[in-house]
Write a structure and sequence with these properties.
Helix content: under 10%
Strand content: over 45%
Strand order of the largest sheet: 1-4-5-7-8-9-10-11
Radius of gyration: 17 Å
Number of helices: 1
Number of strands: 11
Order of helices and strands: EEEEEEHEEEEE
Largest sheet: 8 strands, antiparallel, barrel
Structural class: mainly beta
Length: about 180
């Protein structure tokens, strides 16, 4: 299996095989999952020097979906993502470090015009040549953020105590990227 130090060059996210999603608590008793369907991103670097890694991702906020039209419309409204005013979520790496066989990526995450530094641990799933001759790499990452840190504060109190939507949001990233010639 290829290891991280063997990865060199520029890679582009494959939207057909990448999931940029989230999970959060709803009504304190269940989880809601969602994802974005319109995004682009690149990664480049020299694997023998992890600090050379540069990653950028841009996500169209209006591509948000949980599969429930009414909920999606509410999330796109001013109560949450305010997609008309803030059409993009962006991430730009500021540093990278190899941790064993995996990668830890730190960067600036911008949601609703607010930028915070986030560190995302990624598991390296490997490298493979697909049937079309493309070199692909796979990574899985997960990190918990506070939606309030990004100005997303809407909520509703529950009769039984607690709130309708948790502050904590776990970002779930399943990445497939194709090496560029």
């Amino acid at each position: 299996m290829t290891n991280l130090s063997d990865l060199n060059g520029t890679y582009v996210l494959d939207p057909a095989h990448t999931r940029l999603g989230f999970v959060t608590r709803h009504a304190m008793v269940t989880k809601v999952r969602g994802s974005f369907t319109d995004f682009e991103g690149t990664a480049s670097g020299n694997g023998s020097d992890p600090s050379s890694a540069k990653v950028t991702v841009s996500i169209a906020t209006d591509s948000f979906t949980t599969g429930v039209a009414d909920r999606d419309a509410h999330i796109k409204s001013g109560d949450f993502l305010e997609t008309d005013k803030f059409p993009k979520i962006t991430f730009a790496s500021t540093s990278a470090a190899v941790k064993g066989d995996d990668l830890e990526l730190t960067g600036d995450l911008t949601i609703k015009g607010i930028t915070k530094s986030v560190t995302i641990p990624f598991e390296f799933d490997g490298e493979a040549k697909d049937p079309f001759g493309n070199i692909r790499v796979g990574f899985e990452g997960k990190v918990k953020i506070s939606r309030k840190d990004f100005g997303i504060t809407w909520n509703a109190a529950l009769e039984t105590g607690g709130v309708l939507v948790s502050d904590d949001v776990t970002l779930e990233l399943e990445v497939s990227a194709i090496k560029q010639a």
